[in-house]
Amino acid sequence: MAERISHDVTPPKVGPDAHEELEQLLQTLHEHGVLRLANDVVGANTRIASVVVDGLGKESTLNAIQNLAVLGMMLSEIPPERFYRVAFALKEALDKVGQHRPDEHGGDAPGVSGAYRMLNDDELWRAVAPLVDGLKAFAERLDRPVDKPVSDYYGKPTSGP
To answer: How many helices, marked H, and strands, marked E, lie in the chain?
Structure first.
């Protein structure tokens, strides 16, 4: 029978092992003050908790949190491509308004004949129509009373104050 020969080969060291990486991470955290910050936070745990609880107990903080939740609900309803279009259209409109100089475009009212020409300007009406539709929708929504935003959004009554 042939005899088996065993030969152990130690692989060459390619880089630091896990313990060396951990030591390096620990040293880097120390050098950048992260460990000191973590120790301070843990040491001040009760004081930090007190500040957080006091801050969360204020009506203004609760209002801010609820308002952010309402913004989140509203934004979740808007497809990203539509939000992109509206956001950048608004940006361009604000840029245009910011560049407006009354003396460059004539600050005088258009007069009767100018107003008549504006009434027949198809390009102007195509630009104004979405704004009028948006104002109508805005006014209709403002007229709708809302007791609790979550109830209105989900269509279910909620319990509590």
So the answer is: 9, 0
pLDDT in tens, 92-121: 999 988 887 777 555 677 788 888 888 888
Pick left, alpha or beta for residue 111 (phi over 0 → left; psi -120 to 50 → alpha; otherwise beta): left
Q: Which residue has the tokens 């979405």?
A: 130
Integer CA distances (angstroms), 154 to 47, 52, 113, in order: 38, 30, 51
Q: Is 62 helix (H, G, I), strand (E, B) or coil?
A: helix
Q: Which residues of the chain have pLDDT under 50?
A: none
- Give the model's pLDDT for residue 160: 56
**CB burial string 82-104: b at 16+ within 10 A, e below:** eeeeeeeeeeeeeeeeeeeeeee
Locate the DSSP E strands across 35-106: none
Q: Round to whole Å and give the CA distance between 148 and 122.
A: 43
Distances (CA, A) of 48 to 29, 56, 118: 22, 12, 62
Give the model's pLDDT for residue 146: 81
- Residue 25's SS3 state is helix
Q: Where are the domains of the chain?
A: 34-99, 111-141
Q: Is-contact 42 48, C-beta < 8 A?
A: no
Does residue 35 contact residue 29 with C-beta atoms inside 8 Å?
A: yes
